[in-house]
Amino acid sequence: MATEVLKAEKLVKVFTEPARQQVLYDVSLSVDAGQFVTIMGKSGCGKSTLLYLLSTLDTDYEGSVTIMGRKVTGLGEEELAKFRNEHIGFVFQFHFLLPEFTALENVMLPALKLGRWDAAMVKERAMDKLRQMEMDGFAQQPSGKLSGGQQQRVAIARALINEPDLILADEPTGNLDSANTEKVIGIFRELARQGNTIIVVTHDRDLAERADRIVELADGRIVG
After folding, report:
1. Adjacent-strand bridge partners of 70
2. Residues linked to residue 199 through DSSP beta bridges, in sequence order
3. For residues 211-220, b (16+ Cβ closer than 10 Å) or e, as one string?
4. Inter-CA distances, 176 with 31, 34, 166, Å
5. Contact between 97 and 154 (Cβ < 8 Å)
6. Rounded CA gap, 122 and 130, in Å?
7. 143 close to 99: Cβ distance less than 8 angstroms
8. How many helices (H) and strands (E) does the chain have?
9. Nearest to 201 by CA among 3, 19, 39
10. What are the distances in angstroms from CA 34 to CA 121, 162, 167, 197?
11. Which of 30, 68, 100, 212 has its CA 20 to 30 A from that of 224?
12. How far apart are CA 21 and CA 16, in angstroms?
């Protein structure tokens, strides 16, 4: 029997500034372990908003989110931050690497914060993740000197360092050229093949169609 990694029930999101606008309407979604799911829809349909709710980065909503059997809705910010670092890996369109830190140091940061392994083991694990992304040769390069595609691969390595139960990505190929887009798509496919649970918000139909499942969003509702 499949293990349910994420369950969202009747999510409603309303923005009140600058004017009241409802963005999500009773959205429910379940994702099992090892599934690679993409969320697609036109700009403004609520894709990224939904991802931020699922990721626990936005806590101002109605409904509930459960991850790995634990209801995260209603948890305090400190508890949520700890939960995110242990269970969720993030990949954003803008990689948010620290430009003055090396690629290796950027990947190590979440694991050093988690404190599950000593510094030597964290470094070893970080190098292994960079090797997986074919970025180990750039480990000592300041991340600000890497190309956009290289930075995104470092960001994926960083998302993997703590062996998260769930990987969430928001338009991970949005700023990449076609060659680097293909590399990143290949990486996600391989991660899925290895049993990782992945949810990706994307406009990229090619990326979406390589997933196990496509969730179509329109006007704040799941339509397919």
Report:
1. 67
2. 37, 168
3. beeebebeeb
4. 27, 26, 23
5. yes
6. 12
7. yes
8. 7, 10
9. 39
10. 26, 17, 11, 4
11. 68
12. 6
Cα distances (angstroms) measured from residue 131 to each of 8, 70, 120, 153? 34, 33, 17, 10
Identify which of 149, 148, 169 has the alpha carbon closest to the alpha carbon of residue 89: 169
Give all domains of the chain, ordered by start, each with its CATH number.
Answer: 4-222 (3.40.50.300)
pLDDT at 1: 61
Distances 123 to 20, 97, 157 between C-alpha atoms, Å = 47, 17, 12
Structure tokens that stand for 133 in this block: 């992304």
**Which tokens sit at 173?**
């190929």
DSSP-assigned letters across all residues of 67-81: ETTEE-TT--HHHHH
Averaged over 3-25, what is the pLDDT?
Answer: 92
Per-residue pLDDT reduced to its tens digit, 78-137: 999 999 988 999 888 776 899 899 999 999 999 998 888 999 999 999 999 999 888 999
Long-range contact set of residues 118-123: C-beta below 8 Å, sequence gap at least 24 = 122/161
Separation of alpha carbons 33 and 48, rounded Å: 22
From the list 155, 162, 165, the residue with the least C-alpha distance to 195 is: 165
| CB half-sphere exposure, 214, CA atoms < 13 A | 16
